[in-house]
Amino acid sequence: MELKKSKEANLENKSKAFFFLGLVIIASVVGMAFQFQQFTADEYVAVKQKKTLSAELNEELPVVEDIPEEEVETPPPPMILDEIEQKEDEIIVPDIDLSGLGELPDVIPENKPEAPKKEEIIDVPEVEPEFPGGEAAMAEWIQKNIVYPPMSVEMGEQGVVYVQFVVNSDGSIEQVKTVRGVSDAIDKEAQRIVKRMPKWKPGEQQGKKVRVRFVLPINFRLG
After folding, report:
1. What is the H or E stretch that residue 103 is in?
2. What is the per-residue pLDDT across 159-179, written as a single tens digit (0 to 9) for each?
3. Helix extents (H) in the chain
4. Residue 115: predicted pLDDT
5. DSSP 3-state assignment of 151?
6. Is residue 98 in some structural domain?
7. Cα–Cα dist 212/202, whole Å
8. Is 182 in contact with 220 (CB distance < 8 Å)?
């Protein structure tokens, strides 16, 4: 009986296909090995360059030493002073109440200088004041200085005017006024003539010059 080969079991026809498949597999393995070697070499070069660069940087950069932290000095504790013993020569100042400072009083007193007190005026002294030279000299001085008011001359006014004044201790005259008069014009002229008089000789009381109130009659008479 003769054996026959089936076409499907016959491998001779597929040998070429297996051959080419083997070449492809071998070529793939060789290519992968080549790429692995190339990748390994490149990686090695990159790592070596990185180490070289790191070494150079370490040589160029200065070495920074660790700076020790400054120690903070702790301030000394406050000194406790013992109580100072008081010496016998020391003066003890009493406590002063200052609560009233800054409060102004409702009314501030005025610090005006006090006016000097005038001497007492005496009406009847032991020694009367006197015009320089006496009564005759006074009558002559009045006659020379008096001015009869023209209006009074026209109206015929005449009479005695009593003028009161004070002769001070220094002989000066003040507080001149008319006690009894004749007319306004004549009274004013009588006051004017007394105010113009020179200083009198002052009156005296117990050997001391004093102020004296004096009344002088002045006679206005038409010739």
Report:
1. none
2. 999 999 999 999 999 999 999
3. 15-60, 135-145, 150-155, 184-195
4. 63
5. helix
6. no
7. 8
8. yes
pTM beyond 0.70: the answer is no
Rounded Cα distance between 220 and 147, Å, is: 10
What is the secondary structure of 160-191 as a DSSP string? EEEEEEEE-TTS-EEEEEEEE-S-HHHHHHHH
CATH of the domain at 200: 3.30.2420
Residue 167: exposure state from Cβ atoms within 10 A (0-12, 13-18, ≥19) = buried
- φ, ψ at 14 (rounded to 5°): -100, 5
What is the biggest distance separating any 2 CA atoms in the chain, rounded to whole angstroms? 222
Domain membership of residue 141 (yes or no) is yes
Q: ∠44-49-51 over CA atoms, to 5°?
A: 95
Burial class, 94, CB count within 10 angstroms (exposed 0-12 / middle 13-18 / buried 19+) = exposed
Is residue 190 included in any domain, yes or no?
yes
